[in-house]
C-alpha cells in the first residue's frame, strides 16, 4: 500500500513545440505535420550522464499526467501507484518522462488542434497515424530533453505496443522495454470491438464528418457507447461479479417480477449505473476523433509481419520484460506469448511473467504486489547495470 | 449433412387469438393483456393420444419459422438442421410446435401491436414481461392445439430459460426439457452487454420514447449497434479468427502503413464488413422495443432464487438434458453447471453434456454431430417411453 509521504506532490504539465513548419514531422504515410506541440510531465531528476531516463507510454485514453497531482492530492495521475519515490518506477533514482500521444486530445497536437492551413480544427483531415509515428515524436521529445538513450521504456496496452515498435526500430537505443498486457497483432474479436466503437461514433447524427468542434453538440452518444463497450472488455467477468454481482441500484426494488413503468429500461442493476457513469464521465476528457485514430492505429499494428523486422531484431540489445494478467481477455496471455516467442526467436533477452489477478486488462493500472515487484526488479537490474 | 429430400418442404405460419377481452392474459406483474395473438408453426402429425408434441422455444431474436421454407427452398427456418424427417427432432415421429414469443415482433402480440385502448401501438406502454409470462402463453397455445402435456420442451439460450421456468412451475406437465446453452441467472458481464444495447437504442435521437412506429425514422442506429455488439458475444474469439482473421476487405489495401483518407475509418477488415451487415440486416426483421423487453426479461431471470422453487422442484418428474458448448462465452459452461447442480440437488434426473465446438454461443444453431446426437438420443428415449 502507498504510505503517506511516499507519493509525488504537486506536478505540472509542460508543453514543447517539437516540430515546426521549418522542421516538420515526417509521418510514415509520407505526409508532413507541423506544428506539433507535445504535452508531457517529468518526475525525478536526470542524472549527470543522462542515463536514468524511464519513458512511459500511455494507453488508448490516458494522458501525460501519470503521477503526482495538479493541486488536489486526492486526484492523482493514472499510474501514481507505480511511479514515485521508492515505487517500482523509483523517482529517487530515475528521471521519468510521460508525454500525451501524438493524435491525442490532452495537450498534444491531434484532430482537435487547429490546422494552420485552414485556421480550423483538423477533424478527419488530420493525417492517419501509425504506432511508428508516435515513436518518432517520443524520440524527438527525448532529444529536446537532452537524452540520447532511455534506460527503459514502459507501457501498458497501447503503451506496450509503442515500446515494442521503438525497440524493434531502434534496437541499440533502448536499454529495457517493459511491455505490459500489450499485443503485437489484434485478433478479429479485438478489431470487432473497435469497429462497433467506430460505428457508434461515426453514425452519431452529431458527428458531422468529424467537424463537430465548437458546435452545440458533438457525437457524445456515440463516444459514450464506445467507452461503455470498451469498458466491459477492460474488466474480467470475475471482476464484474465481485464489484457488482447482480446487485440492484435500488436495493428495495422488487426481487424478480418487474414493475411496469417507462423507466423499467432505465438503470436497474448497479453494473448499469457504473457503465453509464463511465460513458458519461469520459465525454469530459476525450475527443471522438482521437478515439477513431487510435483505435484504427491499434487494429493495423502488426510489426512482426514486416519483412525487415526479423533482420533488425538480430541487432536487439534491448532487454525485454513481457507481462500479462491471467484474467485479461482484452489482450490475453496469448498476445504476450506471441511477442515473447517472436523476440526470443530473434535472440533477444526476454523475461515473461503471467501475473495472477482477477481484474482483467485493467490490472495494469492496479497495485498488484507480484506485478509491481516484477517491474521493480526489471528496472532495478537496469539501474544497477548503468 | 442434410441429404436432399430429407428436409421439410413448404410450411405456413399460423395465427391464433389465444387471449381475448373476455379471457385476458394475466401477467405475473398483475397486469392484464388482451387481445393476444400468437404466430406459430407446426411440423409433423400429432398422434392419437396426443403424446408426441415437442415444443420449441426460440431465443432472443428468432421467430416461429424454425424449419421448412415459405416458398424459397434456399431460405429455411433457423433450426432447419435440427428439425425434420429423421433429424434429431424427428417430424416423422413428433408433432413440433414453435411459436413466436409474447412481446415479439414476428406475428405475436408485442410492443409494435395496436393497443385497443388507444388505437396506437403500445410502444413502452406494453406491460413488462417475465419468462413466466412467456410460459403462460405457451401453455395456452398447447391447450388451443388440444395438447395437455408436451413430450418435450427444447430451447437454446433464452429458449432454454423458458423450458427451465416451465419445468419448475409445472413439474408434472413436461416429459423432458432440453436446455441448450441456457442460463438460470445472468452475470454482471451479461447484464453489462445488455445495458450497452439498451443505451444504444434508448439514446438514439429517433427512439422518441418508444413511439417511433409509422415515423420516417426509428432507432435504427441504436438497434444496429445493439446487434453488432451482441453478435461479437455470440461468436467465440476462435470462430472469428477462423472466419475472418485479419483479412482485409480490400485485399490490395496497403499492408501496414495506412493511407490517408476520410474513409480510413470506414470498413477495412472483413470482420468489420460482416458486423455492419449483421447490424443492418437485423433492422429489417426486428423491433427495437422488443429488444428492450426481452433483454430486460433475461437480466431479471433468476428462478432458483425464488423461495418456493426448491419446494416445487421436489415434485419434478421432468427429465432434463443440459447442454453447453466449450467455446461459448455468452453463457459459458458455468451457467449450465449451475442449472445442472440446482436440478440435481432437488433430485431431478439431469444429463449434462459439454460439447466441443469452436463456434461459441451460436453453436446451438449449427449442425454439430455430437450435439445433434445428444438431442436425438434424449428425444428418442422419451419417445420410446411413451
Q: State the CATH topology of the largest domain in chain A.
A: Rossmann fold
Mean pLDDT across all amino acids of chain A? 93
Please outline the major beta sheet of chain A. Answer: 8 strands, mixed
- Spans of chain A of at least 5 consecutive residues whose pLDDT stays below 50 are 256-262
- By CATH reckoning, the class of the largest domain in chain A would read Alpha Beta
Structural class of chain A: alpha/beta
Domain module count of chain A: 2
The CATH architecture of the largest domain in chain A: 3-Layer(aba) Sandwich
Q: Give me the Rg of chain A, rounded.
A: 21 Å
Gross morphology of chain A: globular
Describe the structure in your own words.
Chain A has 386 residues and is α/β, with parallel strands linked by helices. Chain A folds into two domains: 14-186 and 302-384, Rossmann fold (3-Layer(aba) Sandwich); 191-291, Rna Polymerase Sigma Factor, Chain: A (Orthogonal Bundle), CATH 1.10.1740.110. Chain A is built from ten helices and 14 strands. The first copy, chain A, has helices spanning 131-144, 158-169, 188-202, 220-234, 237-243, 270-283, 288-300, 309-313, 333-345, 369-384; strands at residues 14-19, 25-26, 32-33, 36-43, 53-57, 83-84, 89-90, 95-99, 114-115, 120-121, 152-156, 176-180, 319-325, 349-355. In chain A, helix 4 crosses helix 6. The first copy, chain A, starts with 13 loop residues before the first strand and ends with a helix. The model of chain A is unreliable at 256-262 (pLDDT under 50). The interface between A and B is large, with 69 and 69 residues.
